[in-house]
Write a structure and sequence with these properties.
Length: 230
């Protein structure tokens, strides 16, 4: 069957998950991390090549210092504690987003994990961390201007080549959990022809069957890319 090569996930609903249980928001993030681990495993098992996880947006800095600090702590812990799992499963970790805007210890850890896993040829997991689709495009355009490119030479292929991970194919399927029908600045450029799937289920409740469901929906879609299928 036609398994999407690249799946992106807007992992939303951690706060609501906690609120439903009269717990604090951070408890939801803790459960969200467990879901992320389940879904990484499932994506590898299902033969997906690239999985982009929207982990922290350029807008998420608006949250309280406590919540931001907690999420950053979780990310750091995740990067460290999962290294053996990545090795065993030949999983390559990559980053999308502005590393310069991350706390120095997180940025260091991220660089180190990306480096340690760079030759693994299994699933590639892209952590979108301090990521915003608009910010990514701005940084790409800045690079082009810094390289002295004349305006007339700038085209779509050149912008694509200056995005954060230019070698990764555009996402085929973008999933959003927790029922909101919006993109929240995720993969704006890359998602131009992605298929979208919205699930009401909150992210901490996600498990392999949910990913399988999303893929089954994707397999039923007709992708036309603006053309006409015969
Ligand atoms: C997603 O869950 C996690 C991040 C954005 C970091 P939320 O924290 O946005 O959960 P809700 O939307 O408040 O339920
Ligand atoms: C999107 O979720 C960002 C991540 C999942 C990391 P948000 O919860 O930040 O999005 P909005 O605020 O509902 O648009
Ligand atoms: Mg949210």
């Amino acid at each position: 069957m036609n398994v999407p090569r690249h799946v992106g996930i807007i992992m939303d609903g951690n706060g609501r998950w906690a609120r439903k249980r009269n717990q604090i928001r951070t408890q939801g993030h803790l459960e969200g991390l467990k879901a992320a681990k389940r879904i990484v495993r499932a994506a590898a098992d299902l033969g997906i090549s690239y999985l982009t996880l929207y982990t922290f947006s350029t807008e998420n800095w608006k949250r309280t210092a406590d919540e931001v600090g907690f999420i950053m702590g979780l990310v750091k812990q995740y990067l460290k504690s999962e290294l053996d799992f990545y090795r065993e499963n030949r999983i390559r970790i990559r980053h999308a987003g502005d590393a310069a805007g991350l706390p120095a210890d997180i940025a260091r850890e991220l660089v180190s994990v990306c480096e340690d896993t760079r030759n693994f040829e299994g699933l590639q997991v892209v952590l979108a961390l301090n990521y915003g689709g608009r910010d990514e495009i701005v940084r790409a355009v800045r690079r082009l201007i810094e390289n002295g490119l004349p305006a007339g030479e700038i085209d779509e292929a050149l912008i694509q080549r200056n995005l954060d991970n230019p070698d990764i194919p555009n996402p085929d399927l973008i999933i959003r959990t927790a029922g909101e029908f919006r993109i929240s600045n995720f993969l704006l450029w890359e998602g131009a022809y992605a298929e979208y799937y919205i699930s009401d289920k909150l992210w901490p409740d996600w498990a392999e069957p949910d990913l399988q469901n999303a893929i089954a929906h994707f397999q039923g879609r007709e992708r036309r890319y603006g053309g006409v299928n015969s």
